């Protein structure tokens, strides 16, 4: 009888340990975290550390608080327009449309700034929020559960991305550096660097331009005549000469449909293409040929 009781106790302890571990799990690559407030003490703060350039966090039944530090495996030197070094790292968070049960703060050198509030059911979808970190700055994300009387299911969930080479051209936050800088045409040096470092490099034409009210962005529908490179399947079609895709940019830039062939470059941001440099193709060709003759091209591209 004593042996059975001991076995029963050990089984319950193993089950409890397994249940507790299942409430808070890191992904194998340390990029994402999923956990539950049911295992947290009231008023406690759980420390979390993620080590990737992108990932997700899902906090079920929020209770207490989470403090999240992001330590991505990025190059030590950030590359800006024209190859300049700044050391600046930009992070963006995209809350889920059902973000509920907590508030998300940016903690910078001990000072909290609200990024995302606890949503009401009737509230519009939360916006992407971005912030930057300089070398030596202490930055973290702080999630604080909001008190509720009922025990209905709530999930505070968001995706994050960090980059060392984003500029104001990709800013979705309410405070971009300036629309003037974001919409400024790239110079030849920036164009040639963009060809080498962008997530996508595509030759094509503008078929139409529409507005994305949620993102306050313009959606450029592109007919791609040649896809030089793409990180994801952004431009797809039955053949290489009939690919189609969408590229987003700031509304302030005032992009309009019109004739002509362009070289579109840019970054992938939460699965969507965002515009970087987009010179007319003939202007890119001219800059590329001159730079190649002077042996000043940062990388090769098979131009027509």
TrEMBL record:
Keywords of the record: Disulfide bond, Secreted, Signal
Presence of the UniProt keyword Secreted in the record: yes
GO molecular function terms noted in the UniProt entry: hormone activity
Coiled coil region boundaries: none
Annotated localization: Secreted
GO terms (BP aspect): glial cell differentiation; positive regulation of axonogenesis
Signal peptide range: 1-24
Gene Ontology cellular component terms for the protein in this record: extracellular space
Keyword Secreted: yes
Family: Belongs to the meteorin family.
Protein's recorded name: Meteorin-like
């Amino acid at each position: 009888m004593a042996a059975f009781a001991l076995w029963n106790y050990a089984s319950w302890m193993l089950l409890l340990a397994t249940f507790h571990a299942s409430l808070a799990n890191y992904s194998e690559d340390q990029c994402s975290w999923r956990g539950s407030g049911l295992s947290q003490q009231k008023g406690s703060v759980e420390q979390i550390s993620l080590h990737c350039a992108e990932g997700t966090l899902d906090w079920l039944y929020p209770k207490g608080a989470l403090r999240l530090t992001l330590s991505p495996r990025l190059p030590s030197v950030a590359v800006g327009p024209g190859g300049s070094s700044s050391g600046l790292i930009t992070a963006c968070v995209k809350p889920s449309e059902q973000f509920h049960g907590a508030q998300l703060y940016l903690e910078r050198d001990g000072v909290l700034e609200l990024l995302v509030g606890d949503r009401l059911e009737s509230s519009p979808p939360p916006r992407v929020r971005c912030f930057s970190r300089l070398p030596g700055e202490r930055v973290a994300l702080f999630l604080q559960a909001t008190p509720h009387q009922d025990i209905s299911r709530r999930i505070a969930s968001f995706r994050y991305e960090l980059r060392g080479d984003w500029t104001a051209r990709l800013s979705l936050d309410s405070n971009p550096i300036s629309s003037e800088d974001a919409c400024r045409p790239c110079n030849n040096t920036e164009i040639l660097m963009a060809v080498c470092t962008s997530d996508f490099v595509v030759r094509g034409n503008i078929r139409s331009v529409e507005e994305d009210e949620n993102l306050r962005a313009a959606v450029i529908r592109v007919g791609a005549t040649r896809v030089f490179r793409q990180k994801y399947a952004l431009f797809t079609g039955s053949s290489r000469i009939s690919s189609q895709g969408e590229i987003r940019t700031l509304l302030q830039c005032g992009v309009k449909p019109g004739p002509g062939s362009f070289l579109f470059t840019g970054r992938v941001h939460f699965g969507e293409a965002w515009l970087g440099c987009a010179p007319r193709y003939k202007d890119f060709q001219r800059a590329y040929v001159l730079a190649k003759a002077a042996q000043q091209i940062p990388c090769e591209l098979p131009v027509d």
